[in-house]
Design goal:
The protein has 240 residues and is mainly α. It has 6 helices and 4 strands; from the N terminus they run E-H-H-H-H-E-E-H-E-H. The protein has a two-stranded parallel ribbon. Helix 3 packs antiparallel against helix 5. The N and C termini lie far apart (51 Å). The model has no long low-confidence stretch (mean pLDDT 90).
């Protein structure tokens, strides 16, 4: 028996869900990038400001990623949307496991009793099993984030670490390098989750004002306009 979606999304004639803007919220996900840091306002930028900026961007993208699970039923959260099986819950689980390693064992600060699948290479970090619920994955993500935050708070930017799964000649890293790496990694996967969520039920954006303010009908017209351009560009390339 499968659960029912929280709501059945409206779709157009091509089966594409009607676009719904994510509402503004008090979470960090809804804070625009220009508001994430005070760096640059003072005449001198020190290491503490740089670390705070990188940490804030990481936290912003974490919140955006986990926020893509809001309102999804268990079936929707797991549903593979792409040919490679990308699903929102699996992306959150994967990022949580990667974060755990980069801010844990890399700096000799291992997470206590991590699940076996954290270091497995069989893809089990990319989906939630039947024994796991959405709440379980979110709880694991939150624990991973708390462990990562403790490492970031405890260490200086030039603190040294070793990434044993990287090529041997580039394994030595600093906290600064890993903060940049994980902010990028998390943002990239948050983008994946954003697109997957939009295809599931039309929910788009993070509520931070960066999505155009259009109605569902206006978004449909916009998509039709782009599809028309694509079709005509294809005909031109074919010499028709």
């Amino acid at each position: 028996m499968t659960d029912s979606p929280a709501s059945t999304p409206a779709v157009d004639d091509s089966g594409v869900p009607a676009v719904r803007r994510a509402p503004a919220s008090p979470t960090l996900a809804a804070v625009g990038g220009s508001r994430l840091s005070d760096e640059g306002r003072a005449p001198v930028t020190d290491q503490a400001q740089v670390k705070a900026t990188l940490h804030r961007y990481l936290q912003k993208h974490r919140a955006a990623l986990v926020g893509k699970l809001d309102g999804l039923a268990e079936r929707q959260a797991r549903w593979p949307v792409t040919p490679t099986g990308t699903n929102v819950l699996g992306v959150v689980k994967h990022v949580a496991s990667v974060q755990l390693l980069y801010f844990g064992s890399v700096f000799d600060r291992p997470f206590p009793d991590p699940p076996a699948w954290v270091t497995a290479e069989d893809g089990t970090d990319m989906y939630a099993s039947l024994d796991e619920t959405t709440a379980d994955v979110i709880a694991f993500h939150d624990a991973s984030a708390a462990h990562a935050d403790a490492t970031i708070e405890a260490l200086d930017l030039d603190a040294r670490g070793v990434v044993p799964w990287w090529p041997e000649d580039v394994r030595e890293v600093t906290l600064h390098r890993i903060l940049v790496h994980m902010a990028y990694e998390t943002a990239r996967h948050a983008g994946h989750a954003d697109i997957v969520r939009e295809m599931l039920d039309g929910l788009a954006g993070d509520g931070d004002g960066n999505l155009a303010d259009r109605t569902a009908d206006e978004w449909r017209d916009w998509r039709d306009h782009l599809a028309d351009i694509a079709e005509r560009a294809g005909l031109r390339t074919s010499g028709l």
